[in-house]
Specification:
By secondary structure, the protein is of the alpha/beta class. It is 43% helix and 15% strand. The protein is built from 17 helices and 13 strands. Strand 4, helix 6 and strand 5 form a beta-alpha-beta unit. Helix 2 runs antiparallel to helix 13.
């Protein structure tokens, strides 16, 4: 991507120059360690084929699982909303930015998720921040899966609750954390006495883990939470529209919906739009409207985004064959990669990691694939842990059989490249 930068003599303040030098040193270190990143310039719609830096690639990295971001019906819905409402909402929803399409989408989401109510946020990150910072405080405790999305981990931190992390999918450890006596960071006379008298515990998990493609065991987690009288909060970001008989997510697939206190989701993945949402009991949603800082103190998302999401929900409900194809293709690709000798972890979803170890190997693999017309960026620390760098393959219902064959052919060839073989046998 080309950036136009204005040339100046630089800052005269020594503190600024020292700070800028430290930033430059950090950038140099990232380049040396194969951890430097850049923002690719995309000049096309988010489909199976994408224009990046003016070149076309077959992409396997988007979260646009059902191909709805470029669906004509979704685009038309957004266009009609812009013609009526303009683009920007102009204010926070509690001032003058709550549009008709926002309320219509909330009603549609509540119906879709079989919840009493729903509320929208400009992003899924802000929705997670709203839930945990609104409902958990200093006297409470949050138990999180270690591989939860950064938004959940950040929200737990900002809530000021006691925060404990259990090893990924280790629900025996989660149960032990739930039964451990609460910390003593705050006494009753340091907090509101009424709240301090009834501290709460929250168990928080992604349902589909975004870098590994594996899933939570919600019945087991909910059982552990019930034993400790804890509340379960789930983020269905990568499962909404993809999993379950009706596409509601992993909780539907695993029959756990009645045991979930609060569900968070996003409009920006399978639904092809932008924004986040929370569904749950009416009291939960009303409390968020009244108290959630990430709703109160930010401008509402554009009406076009909610109109697009309404159209996408209609497609999810009316075209189940999309998710059936997506899951079938995912199973095919995962099986083929494993037969080639690639390690794909515990993936059971359209997210398929190809674990390569060191960042240098992952970067070399991504660059080689790009030279062959396939775009799958390398995922490196800090997104994943040291020594677990990978290619994160993400599939779409709209990938053709020919697209899938091309991916598998190139991956088979990649195994014979010197950088891969040297890493595999080192």
């Amino acid at each position: 991507m080309n950036r136009t930068m204005r040339t100046t003599d630089g800052p005269s303040q020594p503190a600024i120059r020292t700070w800028l030098q430290s930033l430059a040193d950090d950038i140099a270190a990232r380049k040396r360690d194969h951890l430097w990143r850049r923002l690719p310039e995309v000049s096309s719609a988010q489909g199976p084929r994408i224009l990046i830096d003016s070149s076309e690639y077959l992409q396997f990295c988007t979260n646009n699982y059902l191909g709805l971001a470029a669906d004509p019906r979704v685009i038309d819905a957004a266009r009609h909303a812009m013609e009526r409402y303009g683009f920007g909402a102009g204010a926070s929803r509690l001032v003058a930015g709550s549009m008709e399409t926002h309320q219509a989408l909330e009603a549609a989401l509540a119906e879709f998720k079989q919840a009493q109510a729903a509320v929208l946020f400009p992003s899924g990150y802000m929705a997670n921040m709203a839930v945990l910072t609104t409902f958990a405080g200093k006297v409470d405790r949050i138990i999180s899966d270690k591989l939860n999305h950064a938004s959940l981990l950040d929200a737990a931190k900002f809530s000021q609750a006691e925060h404990r992390v259990f090893p990924h999918l280790n629900y025996h450890r989660a149960a032990r954390l739930l039964t451990r006596p609460a910390g003593t960071r705050q006494t009753a006379n340091q907090a509101n006495a009424e709240v301090a008298a009834r501290p709460r515990q929250f168990v928080v998990t992604d349902t589909v883990f975004s870098m590994d493609g594996d899933t939570a065991d919600l019945p087991q987690l909910c059982a552990a939470a019930a034993e400790a009288d804890a509340l379960v909060v789930i983020d269905e970001a990568h499962a909404t529209g993809v999993l379950g008989p009706h596409g509601r997510g992993l909780a539907e697939l695993q029959g756990a919906e009645p045991d979930i206190a609060v569900t968070v989701g996003t409009l920006s993945k399978a639904l092809g739009s932008m924004g986040g949402f929370v569904t749950g009991p009416a009291e939960v949603i009303e409390a968020l409207v009244q108290r959630a800082r990430s709703l109160i103190f930010t401008t509402a998302m554009p009406a076009a985004c909610s109109a697009a999401a309404i159209a996408a929900l209609d497609i999810v409900r009316g075209e189940p064959q999309r998710r059936r194809r997506l899951l079938a293709v995912s199973q095919q690709v995962r099986k083929s990669l494993e037969e080639m000798g690639f390690h794909c972890g515990r993936s059971t979803t359209p997210i398929i990691p190809v674990l390569l170890g060191e960042a240098a190997t992952a970067v070399a693999a991504a660059e080689w694939l790009k030279s062959k017309g396939i775009f799958i960026p390398a995922i490196r620390p800090p997104t994943v842990g040291p020594g677990t760098s990978r290619l994160r393959i993400s599939l779409m219902a709209t990938h053709s059989d020919g697209d899938i064959n091309q991916l598998l052919e190139r991956m088979a060839e990649l195994r014979h490249q010197s950088f891969y073989m040297d890493a595999a046998y080192s």
